[in-house]
Amino acid sequence: MDEKLSKVDPKLLELLVCPLSKSRLSFNRETNELISEKAQLAYPIRDGIPIMLISEARKIED
Prior knowledge:
The chain is α+β, with helices and mostly antiparallel strands. Helices cover 18% and strands 27% of the residues. The protein is built from 2 helices and 5 strands; from the N terminus they run ααβββββ. The protein has helices at 2-6, 10-15, and strands at 26-28, 33-36, 41-46, 49-50, 58-59. Strands 1, 2, 3, 4 and 5 form a 5-stranded antiparallel β-sheet that branches. Strand 3 and strand 4 form a beta hairpin. It is globular, with a radius of gyration of 11 Å.
């Protein structure tokens, strides 16, 4: 999984926001996802590309 993580541009991750809530995202290294705490969604990163589609996001359950 470290190989996939190295493909993600850190500057890109700083610029991305949640398309639903427009809030900042945090990176979860264990699941390789971008997390929107406000929207309670996790956006996957596939082959080093963040998939910023709400329909592709996983709901985060408390």
